[in-house]
Amino acid sequence: MASIYPKQNGIYQLSIVFQGKRITKSLGTRSKETALKLSQSIERDIYSELLNGKQTKDIAFKDLVHKYLSYDHNWSKSTLEINTLKLTNYLRYGYPINKTTKAMTIRIINGCNRWGVDQGHLKSYQKIKGGNDYDARTRVVTSDELLLLFNEVTPLPFRQFIRFAYYTGARVGEIRRISRVLLYPDSMVVSGKSGQRTVKLNRQAKDVIRETPVWDYTANYVQLTWRRNRVRLGLEDIRFHDLRRTFGYNLVMQGRSIYEVSKLLGHSSVVTTERHYAPLLTSEIKGFML
Distance (Å, rounded) from C-alpha 144 to C-alpha 123? Predict the structure, then answer.
């Protein structure tokens, strides 16, 4: 008979009684949902070991995560940050509630397990379903909301930072430390999610650079300052990344080809751009008859 229970530190334990002997094993998580899922395979492994003798063990998932994050994958800094955040939160709290964040977490866990098999840390792994089960976000910033952001956000350097993000369509991780960006007259070279790429500077982005001292923001500062201003200005359900989506959307609505927009956004392929913008653009199609 098997049961799970949390210790005083909140970490769930699996307890099994076999032939009058109690065997207890840590499940390494404070999430009951995660513990229940882990307990099934771990219970099966324990009984297999008791009945068939000790076999070569897979390392614990938390140890696999440590090895995975310490390994040189040749990732960009932002990719390492994302993987570290999602895996650490999963070990502490289990799956996130947000559907999109949960899907991303599942994809990262599957990647970690797949790497574990390739490196010989695991004999095999069962792919978790749901990595593509997310709702594509279609929120764009309206003209009135942009005016509010461009005129009312404080402090002034952060307001300029918001303008620059919109005028370039860059990811926040690519431009929050502008001192580390290679600036040229008509472009800049940034490093981020997709590695190193060139971002074109339009006249409006150049004006921001000329008017503003060099900024050097941490991810935490951007998040907290954005949230404070969003709440103060009464802007609901708006994220910093929505500026990038709005940049691409407005270019398409102005008649720019999806290929041009894809290049300006730094997407790996036009297919990626189409997947992100198809839900938005479908709603703009006028009535038609066949």
Answer: 56
Q: Give the Cβ contact number of residue 273 at 10 Å.
A: 21
* d(C-alpha 196, C-alpha 223), whole Å: 23
3-class DSSP assignment, residue 9 = coil
Among residues 178, 186, 175, the alpha carbon closest in space to that of 241 is found at 175
Q: How far is CA 143 from each of CA 25, 150, 169, rounded to the nearest angstrom?
A: 57, 10, 16
- Cα–Cα distance between 122 and 60 in angstroms, integer? 9
The angle subtended at Cα 248 by Cα 246 and Cα 250, nearest 5°, is: 65
What is the pLDDT averaged over residues 10-16?
Answer: 86
Helix (H, G, I), strand (E, B) or coil at 216: strand
CA nearest to 201, candidates 251, 153, 241, 165? 165
Query: Where does residue 89 rank: exposed (0-12), middle (13-18), buried (19+ CB within 10 A)?
Result: middle
Query: Which DSSP letter does residue 126 get?
Result: P
Query: SS3 of 48, please?
Result: helix
Residue 126 makes CB contacts below 8 A (sequence gap 6+) with: none
Residue 289 has pLDDT above 70, yes or no: no
- Length of the chain (residues): 290
pLDDT at 179 (0 to 100): 83
